[in-house]
TrEMBL record:
Its cofactor is Mg(2+). One of its GO terms (molecular function) is RNA nuclease activity. One of its GO terms (biological process) is rRNA processing. GO terms for cellular component: cytoplasm. Pfam families: RNase_E_G. Coiled coil: none annotated. This is Rne/Rng family ribonuclease. InterPro entries: NA-bd_OB-fold, RNA-bd_AU-1/RNase_E/G, RNase_E/G, S1_domain. It comes from Paenibacillus pinisoli.
Length: 404
């Protein structure tokens, strides 16, 4: 974790390779997860949505599906008209699921969830879910049974990947904390006048400690004594065993700052560039807009073997792994189109699709591999909730030449 001016930057390295990158500026924290008491300003039947004043500069967008019961089986068979369940002046408690981006206001929902260390608590979802990243069916079943035992009435619980192998006592304590937090939110809602903020989601430091500091992390380096103390306090409550892995980085004048010392700065500059080199001599061309990202794969200097199909396949396979990692590092959201090098054999195409699907399962953000289009392009979608790091950098990005 590196302090750069007014920004907290966090990088996760696996075998020395940049695997994830997060950035948050002071005063520019994400709103995702915040809970507000808002007032419906207007209803748009043609868009099946309502605009809600939650006290920000722009009204928030509330889609009709986010007003219905969070459990699909408990929703009405015939979807009601939005005007039948929302009207101007109505006061609603909502949670932000997507930050304001560009000229758009925040997107909000009434499907509430509060994230803990081991699980996600949903006050009225009425079901138990288990992370798909937990591969053992026996462990998944154990967690399902525990979830049913721990939840009350209409509560819902999603067991996170970190819950794998965790004792019932830890899971029970997590549920208890989140249940008490939700009761406090309800109490504030009862006494507050709209618009009002009822709950503020944790900042980047808290989220990183909660979501990223797993037992497979060997060391955690921080270059700020105050931030080190903050992380230590958080770990004392969430994962005491991880406290022993905290390290304070002090530059000695030769190695530079924390990110330079661990080779992170160079990897960030490369990862956020327009032309991104591959180990085998090939390269990617990366074009990113607010809603659509287009990636072109090129063989470059790689000549491979005497077999053209094998050369193309090996280049595409390396590109598939690299692109999957860079989607996490750049925190890309929306539609992604990948123009892999043309392959003639269906088996080669199937292997690339399988590799992309396999890599998507490692992504902590929902990533859906749609597959090959009729034009031979790979299509996927990745959930977008927060402004990605490259758009938070003030001025012009040195790598891509674009402003924020």
């Amino acid at each position: 974790m590196h302090i750069e001016g007014d920004a907290l930057q966090t990088a996760v390295l696996r075998d020395g390779c940049l695997d994830e990158f997060f950035m948050e500026r002071t005063g520019g924290a994400s709103l995702v997860g915040n809970v507000y008491k808002g007032r419906v300003v207007n209803v748009l039947p043609g868009m099946e949505a309502a605009f809600v004043d939650i006290g920000l500069g722009k009204n928030a967008f509330l889609y009709i599906d986010d007003m219905l019961h969070p459990h699909a089986d408990k929703q009405p068979k015939q979807k009601p008209a939005v005007a039948d369940i929302a009207w101007p002046g109505q006061e609603l408690v909502v949670q932000v699921v997507k930050d304001p981006l560009g000229g758009k206001g925040a997107r909000v929902t009434t499907h509430f969830n509060l994230a803990g260390r081991w699980l996600v608590y949903m006050p009225s979802a009425g079901y138990v879910g288990v992370s798909k990243r937990i591969g053992s069916e026996a462990e998944r079943e154990r967690l399902r049974v525990l979830g049913e035992r721990l939840r009350r009435d209409d509560e819902g619980i999603i067991m996170r990947t970190a819950a794998e192998g965790e004792a019932e006592e830890s899971l029970d304590a997590d549920v208890g904390k989140l249940r008490d937090l939700w009761r406090a939110v309800e109490a504030r809602a009862a006494e507050s006048k709209a618009p009002a903020m009822l709950h503020s989601e944790a900042g980047l430091m808290h989220r990183v400690v909660r979501d990223s500091l797993m037992l497979d992390i060997d060391e955690v380096w921080i270059d700020s004594p105050s931030r080190l103390d903050e992380a230590s306090r958080l770990l004392r409550d969430m994962a005491p065993v991880m406290k022993e892995r905290l390290r304070l980085y002090t530059p000695d004048g030769n190695t530079g700052d924390l990110f330079q010392s661990f080779g992170v700065s160079a990897q960030i500059e490369e990862a956020f560039g327009r032309r991104i080199p591959m180990r085998n001599g090939g390269y990617l061309i990366w074009e990113e807009t607010e809603a659509l990202t287009v990636i072109d794969v090129n063989t470059g200097k790689y000549t491979g073997t005497d077999n053209l199909e094998d050369t193309v396949f090996r280049t595409n396979l390396e590109a598939a792994v690299l692109i999957s990692r860079l989607l996490r590092v750049r925190d890309v959201g929306g539609i992604v189109i990948i123009d892999f090098i043309d392959m003639q054999q269906e088996d080669s195409k199937s292997k690339i699709l399988n590799k992309m699907t396999e890599e998507a399962r490692r992504d902590g953000t929902k990533c859906t591999i749609v597959g090959w289009t009729r034009l031979g392009l790979m299509e996927l979608t990745r959930k977008k909730a927060r402004d990605n790091a490259i758009r938070q950098i003030n001025g012009v990005c040195k790598s891509c030449g674009r402003g924020n």
